[in-house]
């Protein structure tokens, strides 16, 4: 039985599901709100120059966000984002969240409670009493109480942090995000610091001027157009604030009660069984997706994107119960196609079982975000013909025992930098650095055995040439030149993403890997710089007539393997490319 079949283009372009619409609304409304926060922060930062600059920047800020289309977009975004947050709480089958999800949820709930006071004191006060709400008014209102400036700062920081968390977990699966992350992280740290400095600097300034500058005080209060009965206005605004907060708290409480009632009803309905590896069986109510089932049972389960169907890290291999799964929708099919998933693999966050099912998470629970970058066809698990290269420094262990640790690390880093660059420029993929050894793969993304062999030999030549240059650069630091042995073999391997946690990534297993490692070890016996197999020679088409030849019987094999021995780089035959 096939779980996933090719989907016609028309099907992929069909109307999005309700869940997809919710996700897109959350993203769009969140981006609009974050844009508002960014411009508001820039307005505050102008206060580092002066209070006048702060008020002048406010005119630009208001021109943008009080323009009717932008004002409508902002108001709708606030309502949509808050509504979706409450809907998300209601829909959750478990409140067991990851730390970043819990932090984002709590920050998101804190913001509107504190924002109500700010909105009532500005927008609503302006609407009811026609007050001129400039920064003089806002700062005087806040700094009249010793606690309110800190609560306001906490709200600004919470809004900023909430937005930054959302954007980070939206973008972190993008391959280019890692390069920009240091810059964005620095901006995320600097912005609230500058805003806080400007806020308290100007707050102290207005307090001083209020107490010591009678002319400024008279002009400022006249410009504010405060109501004649200011105390009555304050009491009215505080009443509005309290009622709004109580209303919001009531809505949140009703949401939690409704969620509890829904979960209770679901539990009383017929349960299904989800069987995990280790013969662990978890009862679950119908309607929950597989990721929610894992979290409700406190079973570690990878989900880099938070269960939004973007990263593929929550994918599971399905055993029995295929027929009871919800069909894959267009977005899930796109992700599964991107990673070349086999028919019995589904995204846990998008798959809802209606009956008993056996599942096995494919990736470790603590998989890193960078693992999603390699999950193309090369990382999904397949048997292909590749070239495998092993390289090792000769006598470096003995040399390192006679040198300071700093010197050893310095030399190895120079060596790895040169060799890694040589391999990548030749079209190879550096798999690992172990001690002073290197393993690299060639042809992972190719279907051309000849080009694979040529690239591996070109890499060996480039590595040996760079080693000569490196020895010349380090002549004063080394008692003797560095020597290297390289072994190359080509054949069928099982290639895919393997490992655990930070050590998760592309790897290869099979007889070809073991043979390449054996050839690298033979360079010691032959006092050679390179040993490559007849398979590499045949596929590359190089002239091996000027080389030494031999034959070995690799461990576990009955047939001999022809090998070619290169004593010096000058004897390495040219590939023609």
TrEMBL record:
Pfam families tied to this protein: Fer2, Guanylate_cyc
Transmembrane feature ranges: 27-46, 66-90, 102-129, 149-171, 183-200
2Fe-2S ferredoxin-type domain span: 270-365
This protein's name: Adenylate/guanylate cyclase domain-containing protein
InterPro entries: 2Fe-2S_ferredoxin-like_sf, 2Fe-2S_ferredoxin-type, A/G_cyclase, Adenylyl/Guanylyl_Cyclase_3/4, Beta-grasp_dom_sf, Nucleotide_cyclase, SQR/QFR_C/D
Topology in the lipid bilayer: Multi-pass membrane protein
Species: Lacibacterium aquatile
Main location: membrane
Keywords linked to the UniProt accession: Cell membrane, Membrane, Transmembrane, Transmembrane helix
Domain Guanylate cyclase intervals: 387-520
Localization in the cell: Cell membrane
